[in-house]
Each structure stands twice: as C-alpha cells, then as structure tokens.
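Read as amino acids, tokens; as here:

___
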Amino acid sequence: MLRIEIKEGENIERALKRYKRKHRNVKVMQNLREKQYFTKPSVKRRREVQKAEYIQNLRDQEDI
C-alpha cells in the first residue's frame, strides 16, 4: 500500500502528483493487468526476446 505523507502547508495538488508518480513507478496497474490471465513462461521469454530485437534494431538504425 502506498503512503503519501502530506507535509505541513503542502498543497494537495502537489501531494496528488507525488502519489501518482509513486503509483506509476510501483507499476500497480501493470501488475494487475498481467495477472488477469496466465501466460506460459515460453511465451514470456519469446516476447522479451522480440522486444530486445526490436530495440536493438532501432539502435542499429540510429547508428547508420
């Protein structure tokens, strides 16, 4: 559970912004979506390899 302590005299908008940043960094929603259905480990690995190949391809194109 995320806890945001509001400092004395701190604007509520600033506290909300800190909460949203922490929420995004913890990846709460991403984990919930991933756990909605089961993916086989081989499929996970295949996706990771494809993503790595894609990123490497982009970096190689930048070097050209």
The chain has a mean pLDDT of 90. Helices lie at 12-26, 28-34, 41-63.
